[in-house]
Amino acid sequence: MRRLIPLAITFVVGTVLIVSVFTPPLENIERTFTLFFDIIAVFAFFLGGGNLLRVHISKLRRRKQDWGFSVVTIVGFLGMLMIGLFKLGGSGNIAAPVDETGSLFYIIFDAVLVPLQSTMYSLLAFFVASASYRAFRAKNREATLLLIAAFVILLGRTPFGTMVSGWIPEWLSIAQIPNLAIWIMNSPNLAGQRAILIGIGLGVISMSLRLILGIERSYLGDDNA
Amino acid sequence: MPLTCPTASGGSRSIRNLKPLQFIVCALLVVGSLGQVNAQSDSTILFDSAMNALAPVTSLLAADHKYDNGERIDLSWIPSIDDQPVNGKITGYGVYRLTNAGNPALIADLPSGSSTFSDDNVEPGSDYSYYIVARSAYESAVSVRTAPLSPQREWLNLNRGFLFLIAALISAAVIYFVQSAKRGKKLFVRKISGLEAIDDAVGRATEMGRPVLFIPGIHDMDDVQTLAALTILGRVSRTIADYDTKIFMPVARSLVMTAARETIKASYQAAGRPDAYSDDMVSYVTDEQFGYVAAVDGLMVREKPATVFLLGSFFAESLILAETGNSVGAIQIAGTARPAQLPFFIAACDFTLIGEELFAASAYLAGEPRQLGSLKGQDVGKAVAMVVIVVGALAATLGEAWDISFMQNIYHWLSSVFSSN
Amino acid sequence: MPDLGIVLSLLVIGVGLLWLLIRSLRGQEVERRVIFVFILVAVAAPILFPVTFQEHATPVVKRLFDFIDSLPAGSVVLVSLDYDPAMAPEVQPMTNAMSRHCLTKGHKIVFMGLWATGQSILMSTLQDIILPDFPNIVEGKDFVNVGYKAGNEGVLNVIVTDFKKMFPTDVNGTPLDSTPIMADIRSCRDFDLILSIGGGRPGAKEWVLFVGDPGNVPIGVGVAAVTAPQMYPYYPQQLVGILGGVKGAAEYESELAHRYPRFAHTDQPGLRMMGPQTLAHVVIMAFIVIGNLAFFRGKKVRRT
């Protein structure tokens, strides 16, 4: 019974959604089911938030290693929750948008979250460099081709590409680095992306059929026996 | 030129030669002729007005929108001849709708130049008719009213007939091969090195006494990649339970946390070690992308896992996670169906499942005939795609380069089939 | 002085790369943190000692520029800010440049977002860029902000047929039915152009799949560089043009300054960032070369 109900729901919802693509009266049902999911996900947040608090409070109580960071987590979590719920520091109107200009929520978003997100994103620049030093090796034919394409794109995305290949005559303009970079994006890259997307699409169909028909059940904690 | 007076015979005589009575008659004739001229001018004005009256739209047609739920009627018309891009008189059009109740209602104000409109506020079973009022600065012109029309609800969208055929073909192939496999037919599936390495990777963690870190992407359960990751988690956690290795699974979504706990718990139970399971194996961190990445990176650097699984839907954080995992010396098996992130995983990880391999993983690992059958069905879809691509490319190239109309027709037909919506 | 600074930086990087080459050829390990220092210098130097390069719009960028330029004054453009502060440095210059272009041409702009963070970013953009550059524009008449709606593709599914059903009012609570800009807008099909700026999900791809293609609406996108390759399959049929990463932003800014000289002296972050991007690319290429030289040398040594 514990497995039967979720499987039945999966089968019914999956089948209805597939049928709705071809049946005009049912076309809007996808929106309804998406809303259902959003509502369930919001309620599930209580579970996640509760788990977060439980883990960090436990760490704090037992004075485990680095328990100080758990204090920061708890204070940040509860603080932003209160500020956002009660619209502290804003116009005083509890129905005002949570991010109205001048509100405490907006100030913390602007002064804390924005710089932190930008910092984390900027790590990518460093990691790309370390990955390219460590991993981009011309170990075989395919890797060599990848390297050459990477070089052309790297140069083509900078003014040096034009400087380096500006001498190439117009009748051979495809060999100019910026044009070559555009060609690589428009032709081999495009072909590869489309092939991967077609494969992914077919993979999703196959996976979805297995889920809808109940052949694949391990996500429910079943060993598919 | 001397002033003259018109005579009754139609000629003229100078007024100097007129006697008084003749002068009075002349004056009357002059005034009369002026009136005639004015009358002429008035009728000219009227005639010009009749000529310059605002023209209404013509050929107003109302048609039921095809293959919908009976909620839309499409209108089309030829704009008024006074609707010109330069010096046009038309300032706009008003669309009026009449229902069974009889009173016309303005439902839309359209700018000049408009020639179509779709009324989305209709219901099947009711009759509607329409007329359009063309407006200028001072006047308006009403079109002929359309005949009453009742929008129909269609139960099948025949526009998507080909889509249905293709979906049916692929689904039938999947079901056929599943049944074939159940009957005992051996199905060949090529080796996927990333999946072959899972057992060794978990074994490595066990030998080194270090944990396994499983990251199921940053999306929720409504993303099929997350489901694929959880199905792989089921297999991986069974091996982990058998080997008695530690697992950490930080997640970015609450629903994923609950589903992952169920999956791992079932694996431990299946391995006969239910007491070894703990809810703390799976913990929710945050929905925020980079907050999650920071937490996971910290976990990697502190716990130094020997094996990292990066399976699911990833975005910009993919390289950050992969490089950090590499820096702590972990063996990394990654897989995603996001083409933009694949290069980062390929560069930084030891094994990468590309796109469909992620979805094939659970079937591959299970080795169960029914699941392997679904992979073969997928291959039929690929074969269809390849044939269509080759035929379409040839048709487009030959049709364009050599102007072969037969090829051009094939190309246009294929375009219409695959762009129907 | 700036030239001296950049020359010194190039010297430091050059010497450092030479040291790295020698060390790598000798088979000695190079700490990751040393690599990070190279990138730090490569990115910081052009910021501290500004260097800008000439940019020329490539066809994918120019097509979008020309499309916006050719729209008649009074056209209504929908701009969707679908990014967060992390992506903002890359795509914000596109938002600034395209908004300036639209307003200069007399187009009306409807701002919205599919990401919650887009709203705060829009507020900053309005405050810091748009209103100072165009002090005479009036909210409701020249631009309107309809806000953010949760629901990802669900939002797009609705607005492609009925925009006001999903957004009945703007962020100030003013009904869109009484907003002059929205007078002739019933659905996304009535917009003259839709610009999606971002790089994640929901983003440019969803706009093409759920609005542009089914609604037959022209769509232009400004995306992060890593997302740009995914958008090329949709160009030129479903997309008017693509601005990819900082380079795309720089090209658009350059084209805008060229056609409308009043913008030549405004802040052009895209062009400014090309300096660090160029130097960082050169350093990364040097890393790849050095790494491969060390790899082949190591192979040779192992063989002997």
Give your account of this protein's structure:
- The complex is a heterotrimer of chains A (225), B (421) and C (304).
- Chain A has 225 residues and is mostly helical.
- Chain A has helices at residues 4-22, 29-61, 67-86, 104-135, 141-156, 159-165, 177-186, 188-212.
- The longest helix of chain A has 33 residues, at 29-61.
- Chain B has helices at residues 20-52, 161-182, 193-196, 198-208, 224-243, 254-270, 289-303, 317-327, 342-348, 356-366, 369-401, 405-419, and strands at residues 4-6, 12-14, 58-64, 73-78, 92-98, 105-111, 116-119, 129-135, 140-142, 212-217, 247-251, 282-284, 307-313, 331-336, 351-354.
- In chain B, strand 11 (247-251), helix 6 and strand 12 (282-284) form a beta-alpha-beta unit.
- In chain B, helix 4 (198-208) crosses helix 5 (224-243) and helix 7 packs parallel to helix 8 (317-327).
- Mean pLDDT of chain B is 85; it is low at 34-50.
- Chain C has helices at residues 2-25, 32-48, 59-70, 88-104, 117-133, 153-159, 163-166, 204-215, 228-231, 245-259, 269-303; strands at 76-82, 108-113, 143-148, 193-198, 219-223, 241-244.
- Chains B and C meet through strand 6 of B and loops of C.
